[in-house]
Amino acid sequence: MAQEVTQILLNAQSADGVVRKVAEDSLKQFQEQNLAGFLIALSHELANNEKPPDSRKLAGLILKNSLDAKETARKQELVSRWLSLDPAVKAQIKRALSQTLDSVVPDARHTSAQVIAKIAAIELPQGEWPELVGSLLANMGGPQVEKPAHLKQATLETLGYVCEEVSAEILAQEQVNSILTAVVQGMNASETSNDVRLAATNALYNALDFAQTNFENDMERDYIMRVVCEATLSPDSRVRQAAFECLVSIGSTYYEKLAPYMQDVFAITSKAVKEDEEPVALQAVEFWSSICDEEIEIQEEYSGDFTGDSEVPYFQFIKQALPALVPMLLETLTKQDEEQDQEEGAWNLAMAGGTCLGLVARAVGDDVVPLVMPYVQENVSKPDWRCREAATYAFGSILEGPSLPKLAPLVNVALNFMLSAMKDENNHVKDTTAWTLGRIFEFLHGPNVQFPVITQENLPMILTVLLESIKDSPNVAEKVCGAIYFLAQGYEEGTGAPSPLSPFFQSIVQALLVTTDREDAGDSRLRTAAYETLNEVVRISTEDTATIVMQLVPVIMQKLNHTLEMSVLSADDREKQSELQALLCGVLQVIIQKLGASDTTKFGIVQYGDQMMSLFLRVFSCRSATVHEEAMLAIGALAYSTGAEFGKYMTDFYRYLEMGLQNFEEYQVCAVTVGVVGDICRSLDDKVLPFCDGIMTQLLKDLSSNQLHRSVKPPIFSCFGDIALAIGENFEKYLIYAMPMLQGAAELSAQQVIRDDELIDYNNQLRSGIFEAYSGIFQGFKGNKAELMVPYAGHILQFIENVYQDKDRDDSVTKAAIGVMGDLADTLGPSAAPLFLQTVFYKDFLDECTSSDDQQLKETAEWALSTINRITNVG
Amino acid sequence: MAGQAGVPPRVHKRSISDQQRRREIALERQKQSRRDLQQHARQLASGFSPPSSPSQWDDAAHDDDCSHSSPGSKRKGILEGTKLKGGKAREFYSQQLMLPEWMVDIPINLKKDWCIMARPAGQRCLVIAANGSTISRQRNGRILHCFPSALPNGARTRDVAAASHVYCILDCIFHAPDKTYYVVDMMCWRGYSLYDCSAEFRFFWMTTKLAETGALNPPTAHHRYRFSVVPVFECNAASLEAVYTGSVAFVRDGLLFVNRHAHYQMGLTPLVLLWKDAECSLYLFDTDSQGNVPAHQQVVLELCSDGTVVTSDQPPTVLGSLPSDFLQQNAQYLKPGDLLRFAIGDQGISIVDGKPVVADIHFQGLASKNRAGGADSCTKILFQYAARHSPLTITDLLVAIEASDDDGDTSMAC
């Protein structure tokens, strides 16, 4: 049998598909027939030093996968399955695994460490396997007992994995203490094996979250910090890198404990940044970036409100380190790679340093400026491109953070220089210059900016340069698109008067279209950037440029049509086609929305309605199982613009709508489709009725699904309201399904007590959704079917009272809640009067709203009040 | 594990990303459309108009003293009374209770629209728990007890003390034999006004809310008197039987009929009716100071400046007048506003439209100025009159209830 297992495991890795298939089937069969025997056999295979490494490795992998899975339901199933195994079987497997840690084969030890951690993740929370930590620590030896290095290495690795898998509260403090002692001992400079030191350092990284208590204690913290700092000086660069990773993690986890060590840490990181190999230096820079992250977050959270006795631990480490930190970072900027702007995902010391400088600027604001500007001025014109690029990058990096009065004079001076630098002979310099221009427009231009750098006078020159440089190499052109994007965004919220951009509108659109057609646009993000910039340009178009936008419609439709004729031979082709369709549908969506929002331009859309719809349907048919999110969004916009006309597309469109509602995996698609159902309801009104059985069935299924991302559920409730409002009393047949869902969700939401920002947000969304559903249903039933809602009225008012009492309720929930109160009174009429007369809170709630500054809220509250007043004063 | 995976490279030269923006904008448009449509539906539905008199609502909502709901109401915030001293305070508090009329005929829809309860014998009180103490005031406004109680904010103990806006106002009868406040109505609870709620709801609130506190528990150092809720029933034959003869913890003094829709309104109201007979009350007839029932019905009337004597009704009913020469002779004893006792002579009372218009009254003397409730009301005089001549009996009530049995009563139980 054992022999057989080895062969099957080896066959399962065979290059021959037939052999592999047979082996996989027999493994599966073995597992189904005798799970306990199967797992024991695997553990013995893994433990047996006589066996080939490949079969051992696969045995361990299968073991691991029989204990854990990504998907929650599956994972739960595996956990229960393991727990229900005979204790003797489990003990036998664990024994084999522990034994493997002593194996001379590195892969076997490594796999075994992972499997042990998976079992620990299941058993420790159940209070089982209490001897695990003790037996692992025994592997580390003691004063009298020297254990082999490979065993210590595998044991430390196991401890690291266990800490990673198990949450901090599971382990007792003494266990944490022992683990930390073993780990820190393994990291110590006296440890002669670099492998042991590396394993120990990696283990510490995972154990840091457990060390809260130890970090509270000065002596223990000092010791841990000393060992970590010493490890950054290890002769082995892997250990140094791992030690800096620990420092990065300590920087964010124990920010408030760092003060005594910052001097030393600065010295260490500074040395590493200057002298060490790049992977180590990158981690040293990352330490400072993560301190910036902390301090930026602290400042955002307390909005700069620090008093002397503030409880907030804000040590201004960055501000204090600034005079030394900035020069250190500036020094990295000239260490660019020749290929960095052409490679996607490139990351090097210059990039890390510049990124960190940007974070420093956000953390300290104005103070960074005088430290950086001399460097910029000194280097920006040097003959060495590295200097010019580094200077530009430094300048661009500090544009977010310092105050506008501080930056505006500098930028005003620099702008002309930057524009001329777009003709630099070096590609990297131009890339960074264009990026810097984009940053200038993003932060120093726009309706809310006090000292805008773009004026009527310099705008023509800026555009001339940008539209010329967009023809540059793809990486430069992409950054130019970004600059145009932010330039356009600054003209948002136009007052209807011709925009300053209007004279250039046509040439901008033209240049972007040409860019999308570039042969080399598909190799980088250039094409995407060009289309997305076109979107922004369309959004800020004004009445006088509407014609140009209208002329875009057939152009984009034609491009979309081309994608349907692309030859699709491979998965790669398919992906390319799909990406391009997404971009084009995105542009059409933005245009439809823009033109459809105004009665004077709506015809520009409606006249192309049939053609666009048929294109969208063809885009859908390019895929078999899923629908295209962007096409769906565009169709929603079309339904919104065409109104009742949209009815003629429903028969063909319906199946894709259903498909979208069934897409649990890509929940964004599902959410978008739910939104489109709302658009269609508003456009078709009661003409949507023939499709409602199917839609409601799908929506109810979605709500009942555990698979569907929870964020889609609130919009589904809102969608109930849309449907009810559209089909009125015909909603009656869905009521018995919809109401229990709504009531259940309401009750669940009323019981939420967890104080977690994300959950509070979600709860508010959920409540808004529920209220919108109730509003739609009440409004839909008003008149003939009002009595259907009588049995629910008490519950609904109760829910509103719950929400009223919740201090975390947001404005949109408030609005929706009082709307429902009014709708309830309005629909049920005098029969709801006793309910209101028995309700104490509603006057307070409405009073709170009628005295609100929010006009919409105020009006809704007044309406609700007068409606309630009307019914309670009858009889 | 530790290592490169732990630190993702940071975003470098962040490029634009429009997709999420497109989603958000689409979502915003949909939300806006939904809002517009709902708003539209609401306006179509109701012919939207702002509240006709906003000030009315401002009053109700800014009401931090719990009572008034409309301008011009004679009701003042109960707690205003706390600023008053002595006689002024007594006068103020003497006007704060809802007073039953006596049942001189049976209201229609007795079964459908009314609740019943047995009425404990004892002192009718307004009980106010506020600022860490509890004060009970009799009908004439005089303080009966000032004591700690387990009502919300009724004592300065950790459990019940609360902010100043938390206060309670109860309508009670203090029943001396068991030293218990029997709660017959609730006007404010934890600062929430119930004055404008239906009786049915007030009773529901009274029953559920008091039970949530320690007020119903036996007395302790911080809770000197026990409170007890008088059970309220729907008006049907079985419950009438129960409140009429069933066992209760207190000495019974008649039955109270309360219209379930009635708000709590100060002074006499026809929406609360008192009925009694010799079976369910020891005090059917007014007695003299020795506890004897006088041979002739006695009434107490208020003397007006023009010499007429009137009932306590609003407006008052004139039942006769004193001769001016008699008044002049006794000017030093008889002043306008004094309460005078009369006996009804053999000619009895003339009744027109359910009201006595003139009575054969004979002056007996002065009545106590501090008499609870002042002069008698018309219905009391009529009820007492009827009790001596042709009383409304328990059988009449039962018949009335059974007669309305066929109405298909679907109202809520109280």
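Chain A has 42 helices and no strands.
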